[in-house]
Amino acid sequence: MWHKTIQGHVLGAFFYGYLISQIPGGILAERCGGKWVMVVFVCVSTVSTLLTPVAARLSFVLLVVLRMLCGIGSVRHVTHLLYYCSLFYMILRTILCNLMPCIEANTAQKLYFFWRHISTRGLLQNQFFW
Predict the structure, then answer these.
(1) What angle do CA 22, 6, 74 make, to 5 degrees?
(2) pLDDT, tens digit, for every residue of 50-98?
(3) How many Å apart are CA 66 and CA 64, to the nearest integer?
(4) 8 A C-beta contact, residue 61 and residue 110
């Protein structure tokens, strides 16, 4: 069992990675295309998640680095409160603006938000914080 300070560093590393990925991720999505940025970020998050148990046994520092990579690669929401700060919405906006005029992309994104909240999954997630 790790000391509470070490646990705090491990848990905080994810959010630091999540925080520093927002602006560079949005810029990369505009320059390289949202689809590729999403694929790369999901792959980084997946690989670092798979290596987390090995890192936990080997080194505390390696575990913190991998948790930061998980946070950097986190495309979807982390908690209910950070849902609209997710990199996913920046990438979605970039993809929509590439597919249609930005004015229509506004409407499409609003419809997505609306549909997410009235869908069964959205109702359950908002009700029970799933």
Answers:
(1) 20
(2) 999 999 999 999 999 999 998 888 766 544 444 445 677 777 777 777 7
(3) 5
(4) no
Both tokens of 24, joined, read 């560079």
Tell me if the pTM is above 0.85. Answer: no
Structure tokens, 78: 């982390």
| Nearest one of 91, 100, 120 to 24, comparing CA atoms | 91
- Cα distance between residue 81 and residue 53, in whole Å: 28
Q: What are the tokens at 55?
A: 């890192």
Q: Sign of torsion, CA 26 30 31 32?
A: positive
> Which DSSP string do the residues of 7-38 spell out, in sequence order?
HHHHHHHHHHHHHHTHHHHHHHHHHH-HHHHH
